[in-house]
Model the fold of this input.
Amino acid sequence: SISNPRAGEVMTGTVQVRLAASDNAGSAGISQTLQINGKVVARGTGGALSYSWNTRKISRGSYTLQAVATDAAGNTGTQSVMVSR
Done:
């Protein structure tokens, strides 16, 4: 899941993007990826992933953030939110 930012939010400054994932076998086998407009900007393992997004360096418009989590068995879950600057 994406706990921050929320869908529809207007971004200014540096935004802490926070992802969370869980699995019945525990978080040790989870890999997570954060994409912004289809470009991978962060990767990590475990149940949490954070990314500092400097929105001062992007142009005004809409952005789609997508979280992708995969467990050790290969099951994948995704969530997307659309935000703007």
